[in-house]
Amino acid sequence: MRRSLFPVAGQRVAPSDVATRDPFTALQRELNRAFDDVWRDMGVPGTQLAETIGTPSVDVSEDDTNVNVKAELPGLSEEDVDVTFADGVLRIAGEKTQEKEDQDENRQFYVSERAYGRFERQIPIGREVDEDNIDAAFKNGVLTVTLPKKAKGDGARKISVKRAS
Predict the structure, then answer these.
(1) How many CB atoms lie under 10 A from the CB of residue 36?
(2) Could you tell me if residue 153 is inside a domain?
(3) Is residue 106 part of a domain?
(4) Which residue has the higher pLDDT, 72 or 12?
(5) Per the domain annotation, does 30 fall within a domain?
């Protein structure tokens, strides 16, 4: 059951394949499209009235030693992003704040499609991870998180079996 809900965990899946196989990603995409249509019909460009900027686009890949996550976070800096890992789930959260321009208060906007607000993305990793050596780097609006895999055999220990009396 878990494998069908999280297609990336334990399988190698092409990024374009994730959206078609992951029911949550497909549902999120359809809901976003529906809300965009509603706002557009009301004369509002994009999701301007939305409280959040949505979820950042991510790529999840793995090689022999690491699980790699790249998230697009345009317009943000490393101070705006909070990355945590707990119970096998990578959480990327933050906030994009609106820039204030005091010098031209009479400016009228005709189109404003840039979104502001809080966002959060939770990504189940599905692998044993060496939590002490997780690394995150931010460059040009792209967050790269490297999660080293635990070596096989870590966490398992031999238990001696004794004769019961």
Answers:
(1) 15
(2) no
(3) no
(4) 72
(5) yes
10 in any annotated domain: yes
8 Å CB contact between 97 and 115:
no
Mean pLDDT, residues 114-125: 84
What is the SS3 assignment for 50? coil
Q: How far are the Cα atoms of 1, 34, 157, 158, 164 from residue 161, in angstroms, in the given order? A: 33, 60, 13, 9, 9
Q: Rounded to whole angstroms, how far apart are CA atoms 49 and 81?
A: 23
What CATH number is attached to the domain comprising 137? Answer: 2.60.40.790
Under DSSP, the state recorded for 9 is T
Domain count, the chain: 1
Q: What is the DSSP string of 60-79?
A: EEE-SSEEEEEEE-TT--GG
pLDDT in tens, 49-97: 334 456 788 999 999 999 999 999 988 888 989 999 998 999 999 888 7
Domain that holds residue 48: 2-97+111-148
